[in-house]
């Protein structure tokens, strides 16, 4: 008992050191517990990968090609390379190896390299992108600029979220606050082999080559403020409100007139049956050929092409967003269309700050009074002297007049079965 009293007396006499030691031990224990939880997640994922090696859906996809080339992995390493490389090597690579998948990892060294690599890459059975929005956009842009893009675009793509922005990831997998869990879940969904078609936007200026996007094109005041929030880091939790308020002091009202020309959405064709019908017997084929020979079917006259009916809209808005329906790629829609969303221009300063706070968390959110249009193609003409930038899948581009064309169900991405079922059950 005397020893216990002596310990408490020592802690009381050195309370500053005791408090510091308690804080250090608490943080150290919390850090070690987090590392232990990450190890448990990795172990469980590796066990599932070993089971997948015995009866794996991914090999059904590979057997269709009969080539069995190593799967290509484009890994982002130009931004925070050590962290990105460690995340992939610790959490994704062991799962792929244990599942018996042969991979070829290609690491990017600078911005734009993934685009060039995709333009030169040989045909592969499967493509895995390990990175963020920037790497994914470079990969699909390089892929769809290829001369053989029609054949290459049928290659299934897996997305492993390693970047600071992973906008497509919530549409493909369940997300959590644990980075390790997100990466292992995304890798396991690739091994299960279930895919979903996603739309692509082709964005083309007057001079440059087209850029391709999976999420959308954003332009306006809210985008400009979001790009400057990090400059007010010293204000802590008030930095978002401060950035919006300071922006209103420089210019108000933050409304610009935009001209949008659009073509109506196109009806979605029926989905084709993935299973090939059985081949008819020899006698049936002979009779059919003789019938076509003696009484060939009449050729239908070519119908004259109807001229495209462009509709022009004049919008006064602080923010314009042209986006795909990839937030729910499993949704069965009647028409193939892109969405044009424009915020109303009659906002007060308080409303601008309030809406801006919500858009920082989810840029695709729009207020009830927003203008929402659907189109298959749209042409965006900015007002003269309106300098600024676009955000195309969270990557910055100079704002110029562009034509945005929807490429419906152009690519196929791996998706977790649980996430797909939840997306299908969501009300349309």
Number of domains: 2
Separation, N- and C-terminal Cα atoms: 69 Å
Instruction: List low-pLDDT spans.
Output: 64-68
CATH top level of the largest domain? Mainly Beta
The portion of residues forming beta strands comes to 15-25%
Look up the CATH topology of the largest domain: Tumour Suppressor Smad4
How much helix, percentage-wise, in residues? 40-55%
Query: Shape, please?
Result: globular
User: What is the level-2 CATH architecture name of the largest domain?
Assistant: Sandwich
Tell me the strand order in the biggest sheet: 6-5-18-15-8-10
Could you explain the architecture of this structure?
With 428 residues, the chain is an alpha+beta fold. It has two domains: 41-193, Probable inorganic polyphosphate/atp-NAD kinase, domain 1 (Rossmann fold), CATH 3.40.50.10330; 213-268 and 308-407, Tumour Suppressor Smad4 (Sandwich). It has 14 helices and 18 strands. It has helices at 2-13, 15-54, 58-65, 81-98, 113-120, 133-144, 149-152, 169-172, 179-192, 221-226, 239-250, 282-294, 349-361, 417-425; strands at residues 71-75, 103-107, 127-131, 157-161, 195-204, 211-213, 216-220, 256-263, 266-267, 311-317, 319-323, 335-336, 338-342, 371-375, 377-381, 389-392, 395-398, 402-414. A six-stranded antiparallel sheet has the order 6-5-18-15-8-10. A six-stranded antiparallel sheet has the order 14-13-11-7-16-17. Strands 2-1-3-4 form a four-stranded parallel sheet, sandwiched between helices. Strand 16 (389-392) and strand 17 (395-398) form a beta hairpin. Helix 2 runs parallel beside helix 4 (81-98) and helix 2 (15-54) packs parallel to helix 9 (179-192). The protein is globular and about 115 Å long. The termini are far apart. The model is unreliable at 64-68 (pLDDT under 50). Residues 66-207 form the DAGKc domain. Belongs to the AGK family. One of its GO terms (biological process) is glycerolipid metabolic process.
């Amino acid at each position: 008992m005397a020893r216990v009293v002596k310990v408490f007396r020592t802690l009381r006499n050195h309370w500053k050191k005791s408090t510091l030691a308690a804080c250090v031990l608490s943080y150290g224990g919390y850090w070690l517990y987090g590392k232990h939880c990450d190890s448990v997640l990795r172990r469980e994922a590796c066990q599932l990968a070993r089971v997948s090696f015995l009866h794996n859906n991914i090999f059904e996809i590979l057997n269709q090609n009969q080539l069995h080339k190593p799967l290509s992995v484009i890994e982002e390493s130009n931004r925070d390379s050590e962290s990105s490389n460690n995340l992939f090597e610790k959490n994704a690579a062991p799962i792929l190896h244990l599942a018996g998948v042969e991979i070829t990892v290609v690491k990017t060294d600078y911005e734009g390299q993934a685009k060039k690599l995709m333009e030169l890459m040989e045909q592969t059975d499967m493509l895995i992108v390990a990175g963020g929005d920037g790497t994914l956009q470079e990969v699909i842009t390089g892929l769809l600029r290829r001369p053989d893009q029609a054949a290459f675009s049928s290659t299934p793509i897996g997305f492993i979220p390693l970047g600071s922005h992973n906008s497509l990831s919530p549409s493909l997998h369940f997300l959590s606050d644990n980075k390790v869990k997100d990466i292992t879940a995304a890798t396991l969904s690739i091994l299960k082999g279930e895919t979903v078609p996603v739309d692509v936007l082709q964005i083309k200026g007057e001079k440059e080559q087209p850029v391709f996007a999976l999420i959308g094109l954003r332009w306006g005041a809210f985008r400009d403020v979001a790009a400057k929030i990090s400059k007010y880091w010293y204000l802590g939790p008030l930095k978002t409100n401060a950035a919006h308020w300071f922006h209103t002091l420089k210019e108000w009202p933050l409304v610009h007139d935009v001209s949008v020309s659009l073509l109506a959405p196109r009806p979605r064709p029926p989905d084709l049956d993935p299973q090939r019908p059985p081949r008819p017997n020899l006698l049936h084929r002979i009779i059919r050929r003789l019938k076509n020979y003696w009484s060939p079917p009449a050729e239908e006259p070519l119908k004259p092409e109807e001229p495209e009916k462009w509709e022009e809209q004049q919008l006064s808005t602080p923010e314009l967003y042209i986006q795909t329906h990839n937030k729910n790629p499993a949704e069965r829609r009647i028409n193939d269309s892109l969405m044009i969303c424009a915020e109303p221009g009659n906002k007060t300063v308080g409303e601008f700050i309030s809406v801006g706070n919500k858009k920082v968390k989810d840029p695709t959110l729009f207020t009830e009074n927003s203008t929402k249009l659907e189109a298959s193609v749209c042409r965006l003409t900015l007002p003269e002297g309106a300098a600024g930038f676009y955000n195309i899948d969270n990557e910055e581009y100079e704002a110029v007049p562009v034509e945005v064309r929807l490429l419906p169900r152009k690519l196929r991405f791996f998706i977790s079965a649980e996430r797909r079922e939840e997306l299908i059950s969501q009300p349309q």
